[in-house]
Amino acid sequence: MSKAINKIIVYENKNFGGLTREFTSDVPDLASLNFNNCISSVKVIGQPWVGFERNNFRGQVSAFEEGKYSTIHLDNAISSLKLITENLEDPMITFYEHDNYGGKSLPCTSEQNLEYGNFDDEASSHTVQSGAWILYQNGPNEKGMRFLARAGENVAHYSDFDFSDRLSYVRPLKAGQPTVTSKVLWPQMIKGEETPAMIDQIIGVNYSDFPQEFTTQHSKEYEGSVTYEFKFSSKTIIEAGMELNIPLGSVSTSISNSINIKKEQRETITTREAVSISLPAKIPPHTKLHVNIMKLTSTVTVPVELTIDRNGKKKTESATLTCAQGNIIYAEYKSEKL
């Protein structure tokens, strides 16, 4: 699966209309590009972006994770844009009751509505251990102040921007979908036993002294199938809904060159095809002819190596592909003299 570079596309009007610009790196001053205070909708590919109401990444913020935004919080009020490049896995932030990280503390590793606990409107400083966070005065769907908190950028005095005892909601920014490449390790393939089974039988009898036509059909079609089951690691970081291509090469004429897998609760694909079997034209004199249509089934299991690239940081995971083949169909002939 290939994916474009981290990018934000901004539009002058709501619903992606009007003038448009594309950016792949920080923009400290949109006025210098004649696009200040005019953004009303956004599309993001890859890592999150944050829009600021003032130049040089100052003031209130509006965060955009990968996706499409037909309307935005800071409508016609964005003056600078920042690409979030840090590692967003395993985020953690710690809030403190007083300035300079004093008083009681509250560590957070996931999205939290502080109104449901004992720390609502209590924070006056914070330290960010990992990730990037958006801090809300009133919540993501409500009006109020919003600020960006990033790893290594600790804030000792919320009073510096009139935010003391106003924090009510926090959430970590999520990384964009990674690029995933796969390698099927065919040398490690385990092949199960092949099992033949009869799926049809055609019998013709000729009592005469002359060859007789066996059937008016010269061939007959049967349905064959191959079922592919893909199992991710129990600790996979690949999220549900993501699609990836598994190139299978030309290891077998009965297996597809590639398959597309979508990460779901069960990743199973069945391909079906018509297999044509030629039938004999004549039956010899004084002969009973049996045509047995056979289907050969077998199972192949092979490990798959997945390389996950998220914003230049790579991880390797193991997965397993099982192919249940049932598309090898052939005819067996047996004749007996009468």
Describe the structure.
- The protein has 338 residues and is mainly β.
- The chain has three domains: 7-83, Crystallins (Gamma-B Crystallin, domain 1, Sandwich), CATH 2.60.20.10; 92-172, Sandwich (Gamma-B Crystallin, domain 1), CATH 2.60.20; 179-337, Proaerolysin, Chain A, domain 3 (Beta Complex), CATH 2.170.15.10.
- Helices cover 0% and strands 54% of the residues.
- It has strands at residues 7-13, 17-23, 41-45, 49-54, 58-64, 67-69, 80-83, 92-98, 102-108, 112-113, 125-130, 132-136, 146-150, 169-172, 179-184, 190-191, 195-206, 212-213, 219-231, 243-247, 258-262, 267-278, 282-283, 287-310, 313-337.
- The mean pLDDT is 91.
Could you give a quick summary of the protein structure above?
This protein is an all-beta fold and 338 residues long. The protein has strands at 7-13, 17-23, 41-45, 49-54, 58-64, 67-69, 80-83, 92-98, 102-108, 112-113, 125-130, 132-136, 146-150, 169-172, 179-184, 190-191, 195-206, 212-213, 219-231, 243-247, 258-262, 267-278, 282-283, 287-310, 313-337. It has 3 domains: 7-83, Crystallins (Gamma-B Crystallin, domain 1, Sandwich), CATH 2.60.20; 92-172, Crystallins (Gamma-B Crystallin, domain 1, Sandwich), CATH 2.60.20; 179-337, Beta Complex (Proaerolysin, Chain A, domain 3).
